[in-house]
User: Fold this.
Amino acid sequence: MASTGIARLFSVYERTIQVLAGGSMAVIVAVMVVQVIARYIFNSSLIWAEELCRYILIWQTFLFVGYAYHRGELVVLDLFSARVSPKTYMAIRFVTAIPIAIFLYLIISAGLGHALRFSAQMIPAIDFIWMSLTGSELHVPVFWIYVAVPLGCAILLAHFLGRLAYDAWRVANGLPIQAPPTVEAAT
Assistant:
């Protein structure tokens, strides 16, 4: 019963990530097409386009890295899985998981501190766009750009620890470790 709820929750998360990935990529493509048309056809440039696309790319990078890890789309150097028993392999993974988890925790805490330091500085591109559309300033802090780093690393840490726990559970119950979905499809 609980696993069905978790599976349903993860399905909603997965669908949300896919929609956000597609939507944010569509925004980047649309803005850059308008920028190219404005620059080369109308000989005028959108001064905010590159900055807005850069901010969206920052969010894409950090928001989607955990999902990419989950799907097995990150580069992995696996020297031991075929050469040792599953229990020995999990022991090696637990030992290597310690510095990885510490590193991600440090990035989360330092990234959050860094983002908080810039909570008084405003994002110029968004203020410019909003001012052009409405005549008033929106005042969105740069914090919302920098917070992508700790948020993305927290998501990656959750995926990392979740996969580690799931694989440990499978090995403890005598089941083989399953490859991530993308890796399975490639073999």
Notes: The chain is about 75% helix and 0% strand. Residues 2-186 form one domain.
